[in-house]
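G., the chain you wanted modeled:
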Amino acid sequence: SCVFTQAEIKHTLHARARFEYLLKRRRSTAGVFVSYIKFETDLYEIWRMRQDDYHLNDIYFTKLYVMTMLK
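Predicted structure as tokens:
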């Protein structure tokens, strides 16, 4: 089973695309960058809590999340 629902994954992808758009703008502010970091940090904490709840200690999920963070 997956830690996130399809709707949550879709929302996450949409939010990441929005943050990347805002960061590429000429007048991007530090606040946008901080908000993006907070979003990713919160997402990671939710993932960790759910992983503990579901007892998903599969290394695959860790690698998948790290790969998305490095993009």
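The helical segments are 6-24, 30-54, 59-70.

Shout if anything looks off.
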